[in-house]
Amino acid sequence: MDLSRFFDSYPGSYITQAFFHSAVAGAVVEIALKSWQIRSPAIRQKFLLLAVVFPIFSFPLYRIADSGRDSVYFRLGALFDSGRWMSVELPASIPLGAILILVFFMTSLVFFFQELFPVLKHALASGKSPMEEVRAGDDPAIAQALESLPAEKPEIFVLEDEDPMIFSATGRKGSIYLSTGLLELLSVEQLRAALAHEISHVSRSRRPYMVVVFLLRILMFFNPIVLLEFRRSVQDDEKICDEMAASLTGKPLVLAETLRRLYLSQEAPANGETAKGPSVTEKMEEYSHRLNIQSRIDRLEKGYAQWSGGEWFVFAVTLLAIAAINYYVV
After folding, report:
1. Res 115: pLDDT
2. Could you tell me which residues come within 8 angstroms of residue 242 by beta carbon, excluding any fewer than 6 positions away?
3. Hey, how many other C-beta atoms are within 10 angstroms of the C-beta on 260?
């Protein structure tokens, strides 16, 4: 395969410039978040998604605005010319462009197996009726936990499973599934906090904002920068639901303790219980998950200040900076 022909073609130029445009967008967003000390997850999420959405449209829009943007003259004055770097040879005469294509391929695999397939499976499952091992959530503890929550109550189903778990299905009619193990583990107050968090997810799912963003994110399935920034925005979504749940219950410390009991206080399996230990990748994912849970707990325990004033001004300045810099990244 002639890599130079690929990178000079429209698809090749689009993919390459989308990658570098997302990298610039991510860097500018990070500078903006730190400079203005933006800690609100709802506002942070809007900024992080710039690196997801902007590179989808930047390349064609720049071409419409300036048809000579790919000319030799323009590239000589550009801040960064990707065409020069793609032909640089690494040891063993391997062009840098081949490494980038490998990165795109590996990122695509991660996207399909870790993001797209689970979403499709969840979407198909959410439209089905409960399975035989699932019963209606008419337990007294659930009724007591829901009683004082000032929110629309979704359907609750209980799974006969000794492992503590809780999750929401956000189809046409939102519902919450929890296990008998969870009912045995949590007190009524902690159960109320866990249900409030899932109710918040159901409530947010009725807004098409994140659904539209995910559909756009699919177009950037090959882009590792988009992969990272989108996952960061999903983590912020959990913090947004934490805030909503704390607002519903009025007890953020109870939610913090609930998260600790569910995700950080579970005993490890006894020695010899499993024939095969977790892989390095699984260990890294578990470590990352625990760090994220701990950050949510710390935030609930220490409190969080709401960032006020100038949100859209800062957002507009950040967007203009991204657009101006990326215009000279070809």
Report:
1. 85
2. 197, 252, 255, 296, 299, 300
3. 17
Indicate the residue type of 108: S
R_g of the chain computed on alpha carbons: 23
Per domain, the residue ranges of the chain are 3-128+207-268+278-327
CA distances (Å), origin 154, targets 185, 190, 201, 228: 22, 18, 11, 32
pLDDT tens-digit map of 243-292: 999 999 999 999 999 999 999 886 544 444 444 556 666 677 788 888 99
Task: Give the separation between CA 250 and CA 238, rounded to whole angstroms.
Answer: 17
Give the DSSP H or E segment for 166.
Answer: strand 166-169
Strands 175-179, 166-169: pairing kind: antiparallel
pLDDT of residue 273: 47
Q: What percent of the chain has pLDDT over 90?
A: 58
Is residue 311 pLDDT above 80, yes or no? yes
